[in-house]
Fold these 4 entries.
Entry 1:
Amino acid sequence: VACLGRVRVGSIADGGKWMCSPWRVPENCVIYSLGSLGDISFEMEMNELTNKRCSILTSDMNEPPQNIAKTLHDHGIKFVKGKIAASTNENEAEHTIDHLMTANGHEKIDVLKMDIEGSEFTVLPEFMKKHKVCQLLVEIHDMQRLAWLLREIANIGYLLINYEINLLKNGLSEYSFIHSSCLAKYETHYLSG
């Protein structure tokens, strides 16, 4: 699909992602950025583009440096340490997305950004069958299973906004999708031809 407001949010390096009209996210929006790897440029720019009207949660397996943790806190962005997994194991600091939503009082996610080092194959299909996220921004790590995951995403109503090869990480690709029910909300339309 074509998005009139397609823009890269966050750094040009690994932390940023392409998305559609980020300024059009609804009031009381919820944004999850899973696998931040210490790069919070996406979270900070989304906070600014949405005029701080969104609840933003970021997660990573490692604690951020103190200055980044302070910046997140000062801007009202919540950080949760842990690995995103197919099942929750508190002892191992592994969380499902559903667990994070329940723990943080979120009933929906408007924008889901993921860079979870290959766990997208076990986490994403089941989560997306239960929850409709308007925009899904994901780095896919396993090219041998890529076609399978793209079919799973397409079969539940997601359309491609953008695709790019991650030049910093050999063999990885970045994908941005929008759910078909959100096209009008984000000024997106089907390409003709």
Entry 2:
Amino acid sequence: SIGRVLSFVFHRMFIQVCLYFYCKFLWRCLKFVMRKLTGRCELQRICYSTKPGASRTMKIETSLRDSKSKLWQFLKPNTPLESRISKQWCEIGFQGDDPKTDFRGMGLLGLYNLQYFAERDATAAQQVLSDSLHPKCRYSFAIVGINITDLAYNLLISGALKTHFYNIAPEAPTLSHFQQTFCYLMHEFHKFWIEEDPMDIMEFNRVREKFRKRIIKQLQNPDMALCPHFAASEGLINM
């Protein structure tokens, strides 16, 4: 029994050593050979072989990160999507540096998002509001708006929205892109709520979590963009 355990441990160690050797030496040798054969560095090969959008951008990120390039160290602290957008939080009432712990700010952002939704697509917003007042699928329009704002923010911070933003705004995502994304999520959640046909508002957390998982699964596709279905997001796609 002890011999089997030791054999298993040594086997695992051998595999780890081999992987380390591959990552440290063979992979670099392969990249060197590829550069000599193609006359292009890895970044050039990625750009030539991968179409613009999230696939290309994330491959470039991985290449720079794995190579520990000085360029990656220069870009990393300055270009994350959440950093670009978070600079604009103060314009809409957030206090402090962390919106997720600022309940007043999150509520205020939710109301601004709902206002944006109503102004950019009054017809869709009025329909959603009207449906939310119906006895069969009743929910608080404002509270759901704040919850969907929180969902959108957490998708942003977790990096799940990278795919979406890299596909729709390769130049630099802004707060407007975030608000347009909120419009899409609000509209889709409303449809999802009706499809789920909950017994009452007490099922909100269950439906919200199921909706969150569906969106995350969609965003795992590198070609995914949360395509608009209504006027509030007509300018969302910017390929």
Entry 3:
Amino acid sequence: QPLISSAKWLQLHGLKRNKLSLSQILSQIGFQHRKDYVTTLGKLVASRYADGLFRQYERAQDGSVYNLTAKKELILHFVDCLMGAIELYKQRMEWLTSESRQIFGVIQERCIVIVLDFGTAAPYEFDVCRDALSMVLVEQVTQIAKFNLIRAAQDLMKWQQKSTPVSKHTVKSAVLWLWKLHHMTAASHSSSAEALLEAMSDEAVSS
């Protein structure tokens, strides 16, 4: 799936885009039971010709009433469409909460710098962090334009001097660099801020 926000995904695949919102479906399977103001009579007039002829549905949101006129086949068509939409939503949720996305979210920027601050992580936690970082590099960074890695330390460490175009070679190189890092004691409190400032100094990085 493309690395897009849920808001953008809903614009492309949401109920409204596919004319499956409640109001859109109601307008296709019936008509609204109206009470309109008639200027010539000077009063509200309710359309009562449909009373008792059709099944009616009242929307809880605004109290509007719809007379349902659709045949069973059309109703079943919308049932199928909605079941398909539910399945698509489930797939999106599973994708959002799996692998690197459950830790890092969905990367939407075209150019990123990942700042590595391992703090007081124990050796086994250090390896868990590197596993997660390797995962995000392979699964998501491969789909963007440029990236870099900076490790917060007493002596700041950079994979590259500036953000580098993404390719199979550069991603593999970054993963190898990551796994060559040594576990060390926590850096000073200022190291993280220095690493962030260094990341922001890259002109290609927007945020």
Entry 4:
Amino acid sequence: MGAALQVTAFGLALLSTLFLLLATCTDCWMVNADDSLEVSHKCRGLWRECVTNMQDGVRTCDQYDSILADHPVKIVVTRTLMITADLLAGLALATLVLGLDCITFLKEDPYVKLKMCYGAGVLLGAGSILGLIGSMWYAVDVYVERAMLVSHNIFLGVHYDFGWSCWLGMAGSTGCFVASVLLTCCLY
């Protein structure tokens, strides 16, 4: 039972960590809402903004000036939280690999291997909380920005919604949290 639970938690942690990394690196945190009048698809991410022409499929991207330049708070906070979540999830994954029963590392000391799995669960939990806060921070900020424009009857020509990168960050964070629960609560 313990080995199957470890392998399940490892698979979920691996997939969730990949989701977190993809969410951090991709550019569709905010997308323009579907509108029949639009001739282009706009995506805003943490690192750049891209526009795809719907007629010919040409995609152009504008990099943000610099990592250290003045950016909106939602971008800076989300970048920081997502990068930290990625690092914690990656460290947890490496620790979990060494703590798995099917790996011969420290085979003679199962108590240490169990502690490594528990530590990986704690790291995954911390990473999942940071990733969820980062994703939700960005999503709430997009919603508040849109609600304020609507409440003041301001229409800028583009209406933004949550993009797939934001949803991927939330899914990766949730998966890391479930793997953390499996490793910290269910493994003993």
